[in-house]
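Chapter summary example: a protein plus flavin-adenine dinucleotide.
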Amino acid sequence: MNTGIEPVICEGVIMVNRALSGDTFLMTIDCPEAAALAAPGRFVKVRSWAAPEEGGAPLLDRPFSIHHTAGSTLSLLYRVVGPGTALLSRSPAGSAVRVSGPFGRGLADVMEKPAPLYLAGGGIGLAPMRLAMNWAGPDNCLLFYGERSGAVQVDENWLKGWAGDFAAVTEDGSGYGRPGLVTAPLEEALAREPRPIFTCGPTPMLAAVSSLGQKYGVPVWASVEAGMACGFGVCLTCSLPLADGGRFRVCQEGPVVDGASVKWELVRS
Ligand SMILES: Cc1cc2nc3c(=O)[nH]c(=O)nc-3n(C[C@H](O)[C@H](O)[C@H](O)COP(=O)(O)OP(=O)(O)OC[C@H]3O[C@@H](n4cnc5c(N)ncnc54)[C@H](O)[C@@H]3O)c2cc1C
């Protein structure tokens, strides 16, 4: 699906790269061309460079939601899970990265600007929530943030700084906020006041939030992740199943899709 905006490939410079919890980092990159095209829910691909003695950079650039933009910079919120993200985490301020994008369909491509809106981020699914909040208006949004445990929760003061009041949960009750799943406070809020939802997180969470949307009669826009190679819709690596038997490419028809349209039980967790 063409959004009418051609992605760019540019050389960016890392301005900030700091840990917000053990394995979660905030990276701000100066890359005016890509930052100018940033939109909530869309993503960029990033490549950092490793010295040959470190084995060089992984073959494929890694996709990340755009977390925030300010002036000529865009920020990523990323979690270290393998060699590409580990290399990013070791890249100091001042070093160069290649940024391509933005890719895919974002919130503004799938929905009218809503007010009010619930935002539900699970784990690193918190990443696209900040730009979505800026787009919909902070006063119109309430954020629900869930993590497995307090050990991986991002810094509470940093989060308050942009999200204001938010509801936090940890599955094991070891962090700030209450214990349980993020769907619990979300459902309480839906029962009080149904609102459209923008969500990003692990597959079981996206499936559960989509079910809540159907139960309370509100649309759920889910930002979906999948292993991805080209990002241009050609390789089909990121193709996922739809409830009607068809398929969609996360990089083209996604990453933001109608949660009710996805066959979640066939999507890898
Ligand atoms: C549209 C999109 C937006 C994303 N936004 C963010 C973001 O904002 N922040 C962030 O931290 N991560 C995000 N991701 C995931 C991120 O791209 C991967 O974590 C990263 O590519 C892993 O690279 P790696 O070399 O560190 O690990 P790899 O060695 O490539 O992967 C490590 C492990 O994670 C699995 N894996 C890798 N990518 C995915 C995926 N997309 N879904 C499920 N499992 C995967 C692999 O199968 C492997 O088991 C996004 C992915 C997509 C497709």
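Key point: The chain has two domains: 8-103, 107-266.
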